Amino acid sequence: MTVAAAFDPTTITLSDSAVRKVRELVTEEENGDLKLRVFITGGGCSGFQYGFSFDEESADDDTAIEVDGVTVVIDPMSFPYLAGSEVDYLEGLEGSRFVVNNPNATTTCGCGASFAI
Length: 117
Fold this sequence. Notes:
This protein is an alpha+beta fold. 15% of the residues lie in helices and 40% in strands.
């Protein structure tokens, strides 16, 4: 179980729900080398959008965050936009998805997939 930490603008946290879902997906794929990659790309209705993928590799300059045996990697270009954020996993009427609760975003779109700084 993760312990709730105070807001830290220099790192990225994972919710318990995100940790459980990543662990479940890695187990399902039977590949313990998989890591959740969180990244930012240009586009979306607000200027930037969040991306999520699973990756076996990480680059030397990636930031790796490990929580309860689950690893999230973030490339150096995306990290400044994500610093201070929480990666969460939601299940609801809109479907199931990873989301980023980003205190750096000044605006977000209705679905929460894109944002502006």
